[in-house]
Amino acid sequence: MEKEYVQVLSRPMVISRTKHFLWTNVYLDALAWLIENRVLYERSNMGMITTVTLPVYNVSYESNNQTILGVMGLDVTTREMIDTIPKRQLGANGYGFAINPNGFVLFHPLMKGQMGYLTDPPSLDLLEVELDTAVKTVLRKEMINGVTNERVIDTLVWAPDMFHAGRRNLTYCHTHITNTDFSLSLVVPPENQHHLVISGFDASTGLTASIGENVSLLLAPFKYCDDFDTNFLTGIIVGEEATELHPGISDLHLKYGQALSSLDELLKAKAKCDKELVQNLLWDLEATSVVDSEWAAAYADEANEDVRSLFLATNGGLTRLYPDSAIGLHESEANNWAAHYYSRALAANDFVYSAPYREYQNESMDDDDDETLITIAKAISMDVPAGGIFKPAVVGTKVSPAFIESVVHSATYGSDDDVVSYLLDDAGFVIATTWTGNQSEAFVVGMFLGMLDPALMTRLIEADVYTRFVVSGRYRRLTTSFLSTRLLKGWIKLSTV
Description:
The longest helix is centred in the middle third of the chain and has 20 residues, at 249-268. By secondary structure, the chain is α+β, with helices and mostly antiparallel strands. A hairpin with a 6-residue loop joins β8 and β9 (183-188). The protein is built from 14 helices and 19 strands. The strands form 5 sheets. A 6-stranded antiparallel β-sheet has the order 10-12-11-15-14-13, sandwiched between helices.
């Protein structure tokens, strides 16, 4: 009976040549656990995947046996889906996400877990990773129903470090993905409503921009050309015994010098490259070269050993810094799109300050170097003739806490040693302080004020200086206004292009 039942149901599907794709929910590739336990080394796991299946029918000519012969399937990784998102156009703060017909997330920047993925089939609803509001509920419903739409939403946005947040007007564009059960949404920040298209540079002449004395260039591991080895820029030796490098200053200069030379040779050889990305890089090299002499003069005039570096990071993946001896301070931020200061500066309209996070008062930052440095950054804005702004770069500096400690003291209560002053960032983390208790101030910078002085943080929340949000059961801090947005204006000479 069951066999005949299947045959009867399948005949109209065969005759109409119906192709009914079925997509599973995402799940973790089985190889992930094997590799994590060092059982397999040759094959890399695919992470989170979904399987698409399609029934295969008997379509033989004049056949009366029009039945299902079997099912064919194909695994599709969420990485492959993410790679189709036009990240370059969305910018460092733009992103994409997809959901299934139940409203569960297939991929999202905040959907993280072990090895970068969840370990179980996720049942994470969209409203658990996006701020749950009435308009987001409507967005979720439209995506489930496969509706194509676009809207601007005032929403809470997390910085990559998950400690800083802010309210922004983001544009959500969503549509149904053909031949799937999924819907995709692209989220565009205000600074990327307009996309900069650069042309006119002759890439075949190579990287011709000059580099000033005592200046270093870092390059993000972007795929500028098909044959450009980005593994070289990540600090990983590719070979049978791959180990992570811990290079010194001379090694870093050699590393990025060779990377630029390699890219230069590919361009001169007219290799297959990402034309738009290469044009952006060439423009960045030329436009930012004017700051070299400005920085040298400003650095010499200040003669302040507490100012450790000046830098400029561009949308094309270039970071120009001065002096070249500070290259080790920026090595971990060579991929500026992934650097915390970069995304925060793009989202802000003023200076942003950040210090390495410290959970405990006596916690050391690094086994080899206990020095804590403050990063101060601000985005460069360009007015768009049609209206709006575009932010092609972020300029900033790295300084020691001592550079601003005395100014914090005088800007608040003068020289009274009995008064403790704090300079806090927009999430309540200590940037500088005049406190000299049992520990030096360097072991306080980077701490959340709520851990250091809960009573004071509570008073600031009650005074509406800070607002506390509860999202997915976790407390986060968001500032509405504070002194930190104006203390350092005019103290640091930052050149813009």
